[in-house]
Amino acid sequence: xxxxxxxxxxxxxxxxxxxxxxxxxxxxxxxxxxxxxxxxxxxxxxxxxxxxxxxxxxxxxxxxxxxxxxxxxxxxxxxxxxxxxxxxxxxxxxxxxxxxxxxxxxxxxxxxxxxxxxxxxxxxxxxxxxxxxxxxxxxxxxxxxxxxxxxxxxxxxxxxxxxxxxxxxxxxxxxxxxxxxxxxxxxxxxxxxxxxxxxxxxxxxxxxxxxxxxxxxxxxxxxxxxxxxxxxxxxxxxxxxxxxxxxxxxxxxxxxxxxxxxxxxxxxxxxxxxxxxxxxxxxxxxxxxxxxxxxxxxxxxxxxxxxxxxxxxxxxxxxxxxxxxxxxxxxxxxxxxxxxxxxxxxxxxxxxxxxxx
Length: 357
What we know:
Helix content is 26%, strand content 27%. By secondary structure, the chain is α/β, with parallel strands linked by helices.
């Protein structure tokens, strides 16, 4: 088992190479071993390309007979854009399959393991399962609910400001933290900001500081008042959308599309937005601001994970990182679980999952 755990960690490193590219499919890594040696590696590069198991099997060729394959996720058992991987493993003569976790896709959900066992292949499941639960949480949410996994990220001073009283915010965090933010962008399918952030910062919302695919860019506007001279409407580096109500009278433009949302009371239905993004194949969404947008997602309890970059600065009067959440007592504060701290230059980055009541 110790050897399997070590190999599984290597397989997850391979799977990580597909983050930001494979949606709406999960990123998967696979390693084939025989007689104590690794004979092939594979990972799912992007949606529509061969799955990790198939890539590894092709590299192994006829050496895969009587070999063991270590896979980060249960092999698929159904026909999609590609044939079932479970069938390919059977045909290749694999004798043992070691997996981290069962696929919660209703089309799979244990059926891949059952097919392998029926064919006489030994199946070992649950190796590095705790890590797998976290790694696949965005995919599991998407495949069971049809809506993206939502991550909120913002940088603030230690007194909770994301900008000065004049709206100036560049840069509160360090260059190291800015690079971290770009890494987050690279592993998310889409990134969203509000109209105020667009106007104030004129952001590109690209991954220019790191290697990775640029996410789909979304600007959320309640009023419908947008400055279409901003860079992201004119640089053609990534698909760009405006999310607004039909009352805004915003029409699709040459370099952007419009996602029309239902209204919820005096604001936009963010759940409607997530449903529509899910139908577009967007599995992960990163919210980068501003304060009003972040507050809206938190109030509607639509956030799955939060990254807060704490910069060792005091601003005093300025723009708060979040607005009124309707919390009257400290006992009613939004708490987090699975909390982690990471040093980033002079900053500290806290990550955690909100505990919704």
